[in-house]
Design a protein that fits this description.
Radius of gyration: 26 Å
Low-confidence stretches: 195-206
Order of helices and strands: EHEEHHEHEHEEEEHHHHHEEHHEEE
Largest sheet: 7 strands, mixed
Oligomer: single chain
CATH class of the largest domain: Alpha Beta
Number of helices: 12
CATH superfamily of the largest domain: Gcn5-related N-acetyltransferase (GNAT)
Distance between the termini: 91 Å
Length: about 350
């Protein structure tokens, strides 16, 4: 049959059924320059059909962990970024099968996908999507199908790629980044300080890179361990490093810190220097974390944290000095405790916190 523009309206898009996955992967391996991509995490495969014939294939998977141009466009803080990446999906593969390179097919397939992906994602994974992203190799393509479908061109990545132990040391081939908001206020919802309770999902997320995890315990090695040596399973520097890391990631309270520690993967636990037992790295319990924290002299802890700030603190243009009287916190003379804090305007990071003169 001769292709006519009216035939575009006969195109249909649906998720790939389990019995079709082998065919889907075979077509990707045969015709896509990057080859097939296995399902990792939250993934949906789509196929576009015309009168039962396969026309195009799409893959939507987890968003990129870091992308500077995307993150600047959203404007979110790193403290909330990793808890909301599941609101973004990556169009990791898009293939128009041989013989179907007809005018407007690509943009029509993308349009059909955008119309149904929010409902499909909600049904399959229990949460909605706010944004789609994709990466285009500018040496091969110019992204015309995404431009025609009103995707936003954010510019080029820096060219670094994920490797087993983090990111490549040298920039390679930058990719052009396109995004497509799925609602009118996608950016606002992604970067708002506190998500609506209905959108909170999953356990604590790691927000520290590998080097930061390794450095945190080093900052506390000068603090003497007040515990008895007998029965001591976890080095003090490791316990304090994990507690500090959890606090930097937004955890508040001993229970939240312990939950964050339990959510760490084996690689993260190794970087923190955790104890290895029976082939697995183990983290300190809530009791151990609490016991260590209440025994440490606050001044020593503050000096150790200043080492972290010197290494990783952002360069703030201005600092804010804030004071607070601690309710029901009395010193040895019966006076209420007054705390002074220094906080960076840009980074919102606390550089120092000191007990000040008594409030009389």
């Amino acid at each position: 049959m001769e292709w006519r523009s009216e035939a575009l309206w006969e195109l249909q898009l649906r998720p790939v059924e389990r019995g079709e996955e082998e065919q889907y992967q075979a077509e990707m391996s045969r015709h896509h320059y990057l080859g097939a991509l296995n399902k990792i995490g939250e993934t949906i495969w789509y196929v576009a059909t015309w009168r039962e014939q396969w026309v195009a294939q799409l893959s939507l998977s987890a968003a990129a962990l870091k992308c500077s141009v995307r993150d600047r466009w959203i404007g979110w803080d790193f403290r909330i970024q990793y808890g909301r990446l599941n609101w973004i999906a990556n169009n990791s593969r898009f293939l128009i099968l041989p013989g179907w390179n007809r005018p407007n097919i690509g943009s029509r397939v993308l349009s059909l996908m955008e119309r149904r992906v929010v409902a499909d994602w909600k049904t399959r994974f229990g949460h909605r999507l706010l944004l789609l992203e994709t990466f285009v190799d500018p040496e091969r393509f110019h992204g015309g199908v995404y431009r025609a479908s009103n995707w936003i061109d954010l510019g080029l990545t820096q060219g670094y790629r994920r490797v087993r132990k983090g990111y490549s040391s040298q920039a390679e081939a930058p990719k052009r980044v396109f995004v497509r908001p799925l609602c009118g206020n996608a950016c606002i919802q992604l970067k708002q300080p506190e998500p609506h309770p209905s959108r909170r999902r999953g356990g604590p997320k790691i927000m520290l890179n590998a080097d930061q995890m390794r450095l945190l315990p080093e900052c506390f090695k000068t603090i003497p361990d007040p515990r008895r040596s007998q029965g001591r399973r976890h080095p003090l520097s490791v316990v304090l490093g994990i507690a500090a890391g959890a606090t930097l990631c937004g955890m508040r309270g001993y229970k939240a810190i312990a939950e964050w520690a339990n959510a760490l993967g084996q690689h993260a636990r190794e970087r923190f220097g955790c104890r290895r037992e029976n082939g697995h790295y183990v983290v300190p319990s809530e009791y151990v974390i609490r016991d260590c924290m209440i025994r440490i002299e606050p001044g020593a802890l503050d000096r150790a944290l200043n080492l972290w700030n010197q290494a990783w603190g952002q360069q703030d243009e201005a600092l804010a000095l804030d004071g607070k009287t601690m309710k029901n916190a009395l010193d040895e003379n019966g006076n209420q405790t007054h705390i002074m804090s220094v906080v960076g305007h840009q980074s919102k990071r606390c550089y120092a916190q000191k007990k000040w003169v008594p409030c009389l």
